[in-house]
Each structure stands twice: as C-alpha cells, then as structure tokens.
Amino acid sequence: MQRLWKIFSKGIVYENPLLMLMIGLCSAVAVTSSVANAVGMGGAMTFVIVFAELVISLFRKLIPNDARIPIFIIVIAAFTTIIDLSMKAYLPELSKSLGVFIPLIVVNCIIMGRVEAFASKEKPLDAVVDALGMGVGYTWVLIGIAAFRELLGNGTLFAAQVMPEAFQPILFFTLPPGGFMVFALFISFNIWLKKAMERRAAAPAKEAA
Amino acid sequence: MNVIGIFLAASLTDNVLLMRFLGLCPFIGMSADVNKSVGMGLAVTFVMVMATAVTWPLYHFLLVPLELTFLQILVFILVIASLVQLVEFFLKKNVPSLYASMGIYLPLITTNCAILAVTFDNISKGYGLLESVVYAVGVAFGFLVAMVLMAGIRSRLRTAPVPKFLEGTPILFAATSLLATAFMGFSGLIK
Questions:
Q1: Verdict on whether the full-model pTM lies above 0.95
Q2: Is the residue at A12 inside a domain?
Q3: Which residues of chain B lie closer than 8 angstroms to A108, CB-CB?
Q4: Which of A51, A53, A182, B113 could crosslink A119 through cysteines, CB 3.0-4.6 Å?
C-alpha cells in the first residue's frame, strides 16, 4: 500500500510532469483560460495515460524492443481517438473550445515518457497507479492556473460571477502572455513547495542525529 | 483569403509558439543558443512542409473516399513519424554535412505538437493543397523567428540580475510572456 502511495504521490509535486520535468507544456498554457476547459483537458489526458500505461504494461513482455516506439504511438493514438470522438459526441461544446488540443494528446510527451520509462517495465497495477499520479499532477496544475487566470481575467469561476461588481477584469490574464506569466509563477511556487517539503523531511532526521 | 494573408497570419498574428502555445517543449529546451535554435527551426520547417504535402492528399484522396476519417489521428502521426525517419536516412546517406548539423534535432520533431497541429489545421480550415503548403511555411517561419528571438533573450539573461524567486525556468516563461505581449502588437495587421 505504502509503495503504491509513493508511486502515486511522486507525480504530484516531486516529479510533477509540467512544473518539474517541463514536458507536455503546450496544452497546459493553451487550455487554461477557463476552469471548465482545464477540467475537461485534465480528464481527457488522465483517461489516455491510464489506459495507455495499462495496455502497454499488460503486453510489455510481448512487445519487441526494436519496434516499441511505433507500437506505443499506435496504442496512444487509439485511446486519443476514442476520447476525441466520445467528447465530440457527448460534450460537443467542451470539445469545440478545446479544439485541436484533444487530438494533440497523442504527441504529449508526458504519456510517451511515462510509457517508455515506467509502463514498459513495471506490473499493470503499478503502471495504473503511476498513470493516475501523473494525471492528477497534470490536472491540479491545469486547474490551478485556470482558476487564477479566469478569476483575475474574467472575474468568474466555471463561468459564474465570483468577484464583486466593482472588480475590473484584468484582460491580460486571459490573453496568451498572461498564460505564460502565470505559468512562470506556478513553477516558482512548485520549486518553493519542493524545498519546503525537503526541509520538513530533513528536520526530524537532524534531530535524531 | 489570399496566400499572403495566410502566410502573415500564420507567422505573425497567430504565431505558433507565442499565441497558440504549440511546440513549447523544443522552444524551452533548444533555445539556449542561436545556432541550435536556427538548426531546430530549419528542421521543423522542412518536416512541416513535407508532412503537409503528404497528409493533405492522403486525407482527401484516401481517407475521405474510404470513409476512414476517424483514423485521422493515427494515420497522421504515423506519417509524420515515418517521414522523420526517412528524412533522417536520406540526409545521413546523401548530405552528411547537413545531417551532422541537423541530425540530433530530427528525432525530437516527431513529438513536436506544432507539426501535427498544422496538418490537422489544414483539414479543419478547409484549405486547398497550395494554401496548406503556404500555411505550413508560414507557421514554420513564425516558429523560427520566435526561437531565434528567444535565443537572443537568453544570451542576455545569462548576465542579467534575475529576481531570486524567478531564477531558472520561471524567468524563461516570464520573458516569453513579454515576447508574446510584443507579438500581440501584430494583431491589427490582418483583418
């Protein structure tokens, strides 16, 4: 249990794919102008990474080493197609506002990276837990950035008015430059968080010594 | 829309990196010096135009008549991946000097989302073949310009005093934010 928790939790702060490993950035800045988009993108991404890691982990002994990259791409593309078509059918509005970024999950380096580094070597259960950790780590950053941007840039959350009437929306935050700026602050925040956690982990060890 | 309009829109007002956030990974990873960023930019241009020239006919003359359009994602990514491989083999054999300077960037291009996005855009925007190729060249040019500008900024940043909490990667994004603000000035260029 503890071992699984360790696999799960590393994706959230220590090896956060967006803020620490700096991969899969494109979608993170692009879809975060509203919280609803961020939730949709995070959900779609988590779906694809969980199933891709599960399938590849199940077949890891059958996949020849030389042909692994094309096989990974096909598996990832298949699940991306599934989520893309399902969203078009059941959530047409969300699908329209996310646009090209749903099909682009297929080239998201987070999935390729985890499949290559983790799922192709580990047991299915571990792989699914790892995928969930990465998915949650990706989604919290997306929702955090989106909440920040939507609140300041539009005065709303989930399209509902939150800020008082007198609040003048700061348009900068909904525009592309605002996305980059908020992302910069989030990386800075995560570095601080990681250092704080390391200090806390080191403190009792020092007392014991 | 005329061809020049497509080119300007693709390269400046809708700059692929700064306005649409595509291809950020190589943008952050590869912009450390000007030569590398030019190499990456040229390699992307090459693959982007090739990918467009292959995927557009493939979609309109094969997938549409066979009613296989739901395989679009799968087919396009495979085309790009194999194209990158082919280009790599070709350069290695015939133009070794170019391969030596461009070789390391080529494998990275398969996972450059800008290329896949361009091939999707061409279909969803309903462009013809010529327009698609012009669009691809425009996007690639915009990518190259942004890469080179960023490389220039980074060489200045090395000697600049950076606030402590922004040291490392955060300052790169903060600088990108300012660069994107500058590019917003182009938005009046095209109606």
A1: no
A2: no
A3: 113
A4: A53
